[in-house]
């Protein structure tokens, strides 16, 4: 048994490393090629950069002016709609910002704009416009609880090339009408997120007809409990929320909470946790053991977190000990779930969600603590996205000395030493703080040197250093989370 567990864990670790390498390594190679083109032809790239900066500055100025502008009056709305349909990105961006501020009043104008000849689904590539005029109109309407939208664009569900298919599915589903039930059930069976959001919107707004809801409830129950039907995570949640006590009883049955359930066990545990159903530890422990044994195999790779939370309801100290064990294993697939559990148990925010709200009183020392963690979050964001190659190629790499200091401040000495080594791989005196010079340094790296950057990058995938730092300042971060939630 122990041997099979070790083999499964080893295979899962190899798979995880290979998956991340496939994501990061090709990106690094493409970045190296781009860096070398920048060095080979700096004048062309400098002109492109300057043009981009000019357009960006103009666009940001227009956006700031739109955000500061007074609310549009009813008489001004038609002109704003016309600018929304304009092909000039600066004009239509500014119009969109102003219309958003009076969205409810703009609804009739936006609905009428769908029939405007200028509201095409064609993107103007020559202007570098990322959206079509009609797409911008529908995008704004989709932010409203607009029941009329379903009748206006519901027939466009088959036009994904227009980027309208998802809004059309959601709007048509949100009609909440029984005559749309066959269409909705077909979409839900495909696990369509827009259809799921449409059902939730119909319920929230009171648009859902009783027969419509009954049909979805019956489908959700069958989908949640019948192993012959395709799995749907959303169906389990809908059944738990709308099926009453009978649904929670069914989801906590021995048939569902079984090591033989390779279909819904993780989803059922999550719903039972959210609805406050306490499970006997004798029921939960076999599920935890299965999650640890079948690491990397669905659904057991998604079961460790909810099973740990279910165990915590009756044996909190045992659950915390298990989480701390896996927090110390950054290469283990359960590392992130363990970190999240400890973070939640301590009442801490996500590490990336630590900006204090306006008006929160902080001492100078507390601001320093937040500054160190913010620097580390910026560093981690770059490295976890594209490795140390991306970090030094982008603007963030110019701050590597400050980031080394921040890593030391949070107690991650190994990370600080690795970042210092990486900076000296880029250049013996340390990577330049000037980005142009640093790109030239990076472009000149040998394959062996870039491989060393790849070898150092995984040190920064662990959540443990940041979490331990937050735990050392638990009162501050718990207070910050409470302030943000208020």
Summarize the model shown.
The protein has 486 residues and is mostly helical. The protein is built from 25 helices and no strands. This is DMP19 family protein.
- General shape: globular
The computed structural class is: mainly alpha
Helix content: 55-70%
Amount of beta strand:
under 5%
Number of helices: 25
Task: Give the beta-strand count.
Answer: 0
The biggest beta sheet is recorded as:
none
From the N-terminal CA to the C-terminal CA, the straight-line distance is: 49 Å
Low-confidence stretches: 1-24
Rg on CA atoms, Å: 27 Å
Give the overall pLDDT as a whole number.
90
User: From N to C, what is the helix and strand string?
Assistant: HHHHHHHHHHHHHHHHHHHHHHHHH
Protein name: DMP19 family protein
InterPro entries: DMP19_C
Pfam families: DMP19 (PF14300)
Question: How would you summarize the topology of this molecule?
Answer:
Layout: H1 2-40, H2 42-68, H3 77-84, H4 89-100, H5 103-113, H6 133-142, H7 148-153, H8 165-174, H9 181-189, H10 193-205, H11 210-225, H12 233-242, H13 244-251, H14 265-274, H15 281-293, H16 304-312, H17 316-327, H18 335-345, H19 364-393, H20 400-409, H21 413-426, H22 435-443, H23 447-456, H24 464-472, H25 474-485
Description of the structure:
There is one protein chain. With 486 residues, the protein is mainly α. Helix 8 (165-174) packs parallel to helix 10, helix 16 runs parallel beside helix 18 and helix 20 (400-409) runs antiparallel to helix 21. The longest helix is centred in the first third of the chain and has 39 residues, at 2-40. Among the domains are: 252-345; 364-481, no CATH class. It has helices at 2-40, 42-68, 77-84, 89-100, 103-113, 133-142, 148-153, 165-174, 181-189, 193-205, 210-225, 233-242, 244-251, 265-274, 281-293, 304-312, 316-327, 335-345, 364-393, 400-409, 413-426, 435-443, 447-456, 464-472, 474-485.
């Amino acid at each position: 048994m122990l041997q099979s567990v070790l083999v499964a864990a080893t295979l899962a670790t190899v798979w995880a490393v290979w998956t991340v390498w496939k994501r990061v390594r090709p990106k690094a190679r493409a970045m190296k090629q781009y860096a070398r083109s920048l060095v080979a032809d700096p004048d062309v790239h400098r002109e492109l950069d300057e043009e981009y900066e000019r357009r960006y500055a103009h666009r940001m100025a227009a956006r700031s002016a739109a955000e500061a502008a007074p609310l549009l009056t009813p008489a001004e709305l038609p002109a704003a709609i016309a600018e929304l349909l304009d092909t000039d990105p600066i004009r239509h961006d500014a119009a969109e910002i102003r219309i958003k501020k009076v969205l409810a009043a703009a609804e009739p104008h936006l609905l009428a704009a769908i029939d405007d000849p200028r509201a095409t689904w064609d993107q103007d590539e020559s202007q570098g416009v990322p959206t079509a005029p009609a797409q911008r109109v529908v995008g704004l309407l989709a932010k409203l609880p607009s029941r009329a939208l379903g009748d206006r664009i519901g027939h466009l569900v088959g036009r994904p090339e227009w980027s309208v298919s998802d809004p059309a599915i959601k709007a048509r589903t949100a009609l909440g009408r029984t005559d749309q039930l066959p269409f909705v059930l077909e979409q839900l069976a495909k696990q369509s997120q827009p259809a799921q959001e449409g059902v939730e919107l119909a319920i929230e707004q009171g648009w859902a007809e009783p027969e419509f809801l009954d049909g979805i409830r019956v489908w959700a129950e069958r989908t949640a409990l019948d192993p012959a039907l395709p799995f749907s995570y959303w169906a389990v949640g809908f059944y738990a929320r709308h099926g009453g006590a009978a649904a929670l009883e069914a989801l906590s049955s021995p048939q569902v909470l079984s090591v033989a359930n390779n279909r819904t066990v993780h989803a059922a545990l999550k719903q039972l946790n959210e609805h406050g159903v306490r499970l006997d530890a004798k029921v939960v422990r076999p599920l935890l053991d299965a999650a640890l044994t079948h690491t990397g195999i669905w659904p057991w790779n998604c079961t460790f977190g909810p099973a740990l939370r279910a165990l915590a309801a009756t044996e909190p100290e045992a659950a915390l000990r298990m989480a701390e064990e896996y927090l110390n294993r950054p290469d283990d697939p359960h590392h992130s779930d363990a970190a999240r559990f400890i973070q939640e148990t301590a009442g801490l925010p996500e590490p990336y969600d630590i900006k204090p709200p306006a008006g929160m009183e902080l001492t100078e020392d507390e601001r320093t603590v937040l500054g160190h963690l913010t620097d580390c979050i910026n560093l981690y964001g770059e490295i976890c996205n594209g490795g140390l190659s991306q970090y030094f190629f982008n603007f963030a790499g110019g701050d590597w000395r400050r980031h080394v200091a921040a890593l030391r401040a949070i107690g991650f000495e190994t990370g600080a030493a690795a970042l210092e080594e990486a900076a000296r791989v880029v250049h013996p005196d340390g990577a330049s703080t000037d980005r142009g010079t640093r790109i030239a340094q990076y472009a000149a790296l040998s394959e062996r040197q870039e491989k060393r950057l790849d070898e150092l990058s995984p040190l920064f995938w662990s959540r443990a250093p940041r979490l331990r730092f937050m735990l050392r300042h638990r009162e501050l971060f718990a207070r910050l989370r409470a302030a943000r939630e208020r």
